[in-house]
Amino acid sequence: MNQQAGRNNPHFKAAADWRSRLRGLGVQLQFLGAHLPKYARLMRLHRPIGIWLLLWPTLWALWIAGDGVPNQAVLLVFVAGTIIVRSAGCIINDFADRKIDPHVARTADRPLATGEIEVGEALVLFAGLMLIALGLVMTMNTLTVRLALGAAVITVVYPFTKRFISMPQLVLGVAFAWGIPMAFAAQLGSVPRLGWLLFLSTLIWGVIYDTEYAMADREDDLKIGVRSTAILFGEMDRMIIGGMQLFFLLGMALVGQAASMGRWYYGGLLVALLLSIYQQFLIKGRGGERCYRAFTNNFWLGGAVFFAIVLDFTYRPLPV
Known about the structure:
By secondary structure, the chain is mainly α. The protein contains 16 helices and no strands. The protein has helices at 2-8, 10-42, 49-65, 72-96, 111-114, 119-137, 142-161, 168-177, 179-188, 193-215, 218-224, 229-233, 237-258, 263-282, 288-296, 298-314.
């Protein structure tokens, strides 16, 4: 009787309920812990080059818009948002390419391609990341939120464009440069012409490095019918990339002029020029591994421009 009465006690029921919840939470955490490595690979966290290529232009814009002193809260939101959105972008890209990736040597081991992760799992993770990104951007002003909605559309649309247009790299260039108008909007409340000039220059840079990336997969893409600028440009690929590199550097020089940048900045552009020449050397034989190295070399190019901007603002002469 006493034992039965104890079980009917509200405190006993509450304690049992909490124990049940904790056991359930423990099972969920154990499940998550066991699956984290494959989710990290799905988000390509083990290959952060994409994060940096998305982050560098955003940092350029934040420093220029903030006259060398970007708002700290805005900076934190944009850094976190960049990592989250790039991770979400990788998931939706692999979802779109899940039937293609098994036929490409470089992508055959991706979790969706191998069946290691179910499609439903991937889409839930994608939705969760995008909701987190939305929560972050909602702390910004209205213009930034509107631009972020455009970024979300581009993120979802890009992976499917390689089936329908010959220059999907142009769409990727827009996606990877979109953080620039967002950064100016968050910092200033508007996007001046300087911001759009930086956006256009970065768009060209995006087409450059994604064409180098596509050159590494050109043979596989030709077999399975995937379109790219590497295929479109054909034998003219190196010449066209070289022309785009010159336009990119010219655009960045105009950005420097409009932003009243000094010798540190132009020194950084000189480094970017030398790295661009090195990339031409790497893609000369059009070998897949060397083309991929040219693509990853853009990490250093973007970093050189960023640190040149930081140094230029740091050592800028004080106004008389």
